[in-house]
Amino acid sequence: MPSYNPPLRDMHFVIHELLGAVDELKQIPAYADLDADTVNAVLEEGGKFASKVLAPLNLTGDAQGCVLDKTTHEVKTPDGFKDAYKQYVENGWSALAADPEWGGQGMPMLVNQAVYEMLNSANQAWTMYPGLSHGAHAALEAHGTDEQKKLYLPKLTSGEWTGTMCLTEPHCGTDLGLLRTKAVPQADGTYKITGAKIFISAGEHDMADNIVHLVLARLPDAPEGSKGISLFAVPKFNVNADGSLGSRNGIYCGGLEHKMGIHGNATCQMVLEDAVGTLVGKPHRGLPAMFVMMNGARLGVGNQSLGLTQVAYENAVNYAKDRVQMRALSGPKRPDLAADPIIVHPDVRKMLLTARAYAEGARALIYFVAVELDKAHNHPDEAVRKASDDLVALLTPIVKAFITDNAYIATTHCQQVFGGHGYIHEWGMEQFVRDSRINMIYEGTNTVQSLDLLGRKVLGDGGAKLTAFGKIVGRFVKANADNEALQEFTKPLADLGQKVQAFTMEIGMKGMQNPDEVGAAAVDYLRVVGHLVFAYMFAQSAKIALEKQGDSDPFYKAKLSVARFYFAKLLPEVETAMITAKAGLKPLSELDEALF
Q: pLDDT of 529-574, one tens digit each?
């Protein structure tokens, strides 16, 4: 059975040393009393819950999966999931980052993201049940009526109820403009909603008393396309005026998807038959409201893949240190043993270091974005809020796509370290691979994220958001121009920054002549910009590690070694990605459709 040991030392490093997050967040009145000891204490307790309660359920949850009673439409989650959720709620984890107005503890998003990293490492399938509630909470808090907020937010905050988002339909996925679910106005101000949704994570389960579904549907007078979509709150059980549960609503699970991974999470086919719902936000303006939840979910999926990368790495390292096979090519390293531990072999070390670098880079980026998200929502200075919001918008598709792509690479490498045992269920590695592969699809495929980055976030505003990030990188490079020891990091970082500018302009000019050129370049483009962001994070980490070289803590020596590995072995991918992106549309389009 795989184990999990929360990487608290590196989490502390990113939060306190790399980001200086506590001082940054203390500028926000709501977090004025935040201190490092409190943050560390929360993470320590969160790590205990993750490693001791959730991790032991991951392997068995994958084997058991969820079971649907087709008569009652109720779903039973794997053994132990319900009890673990009860502990989660009783210990207040669901309320950690929620507004005190709704019963929350008011901690920063950063702290919640750090806790969720550990929960995802321990058991992604379980973590998705409460994880989706955060997005539902955010969407209702931003766009709900006062009545909806009072009705739903306290229960979502406490964890007594959970939330979902119902977008995808059998005939349409990303192209939501094609959806057919209908909402008919009623005399009492509610709506009767009829339709079908698929791929609804945590759409039905036995862990909470009620489930609040956020459902996209069309009103009778809706214009065609995405501009005719409205958003509705549709509870599993109708809620009485006093907040108690009433009759069973007309929304139920008609079937469970049999997926390649995350078997412990119920991915449901939801049927709506005159289900009672209330409008969230304005008519025909459902997508902007839902995007609050979707963008939160995209950051969450990136965090899921960080969690999987970390836990796969930990187990692969433990195995590589213990498993003996062959001798090192340069001669025996452990003559006391029949063979050397496989960690001495260069390619095994490359696989392990790839996973470690992608985990450390992802952690730095996700925590950085969490701080910016806290500032975007709560900072007293409007200019700071705007700048942070733009930065989050730029980086969200990178968090989702770059980190999930990397996680699949990393978990596959870690599986390979185990050799034949990596393909056996009991070792846990093949589960991490299967789970990580799904994350590349969730919340908008990674190709869609690439189109969003290049088409909307970069070219859509004339490169303003990317230029703003480039200035952040440029200031770091300039401030360290005289730091000779850091040149091995700042020189390639500065070089890549300049190349990205020219690269973006070239792709943009080709896109003006033919928009399909953007589609042909987008995936490669995201890989390039993703590496630019990671390189910036690793360069900053290397600076700190160099300054602490005299420190007796071997942590900094390791941090410097991982940064050097990243720059030497992983960052060069950008050269190939730019070449293939610049190759353009022609190699993709010259083959006649009939010849495929």
A: 999 999 999 999 999 999 998 778 899 999 999 999 999 999 999 9
What pLDDT shows up at residue 534? 98
- Is the Cβ–Cβ distance between 11 and 114 less than 8 Å? yes
| Cα four-point dihedral sign 401, 405, 406, 407 | positive
CA distance 579 to 376: 36
Chain position carrying tokens 């995350």:
262
Q: How many CA atoms lie within 13 A of 66 on its CB side?
A: 34
Tokens of residue 365, six digits: 């980026």
Contact, 218 vs 180, CB < 8 A? Answer: yes
Reported as type and span, the H/E element at residue 234 is: strand 230-235
Based on DSSP, count helices (H) and strands (E) in the chain, helices before strands. Answer: 18, 11
Q: Is 443 a catalytic residue?
A: yes
- The answer, as to whether pTM is greater than 0.90, is yes
| DSSP code per residue over 170-230 | TTBSS-GGG---EEEE-TTS-EEEEEEEEEEETSS-SSSSEEEEEEEEB-TTPPSSGGGBE
The answer to whether residue 173 scores a pLDDT higher than 80 is no
Half-sphere exposure of 578 (CA within 13 A, CB side): 21
pLDDT for the residue 174: 74
Closest CA to 191 of 164, 210, 218: 218
Cα three-residue angle 44-435-528, rounded to 5 degrees: 90
How far apart are the C-alpha atoms of 222 and 240, rounded to whole Å?
Answer: 30
Backbone angles phi, psi at 300, to 5 degrees: -65, -40
Show Cβ contacts of residue 362 under 8 Å, excluding neighbours closer than 6 positions. 302, 305, 306, 309, 403, 406, 407
Please give the Cα distance from 266 to 206 (Å, whole number). Answer: 10
Active-site annotation holder among 24, 141, 443, 517: 443
**Are the CB atoms for 139 and 215 separated by under 8 Å?**
no
In the DSSP assignment, the letter for residue 420 is G
CB 301 within 8 A of CB 437: no
Query: Distance between CA 265 and CA 61 in Å, rounded?
Result: 9
How buried is 472 (Cβ within 10 angstroms: 0-12 exposed, 13-18 middle, 19+ buried)? exposed
DSSP for residue 162: E
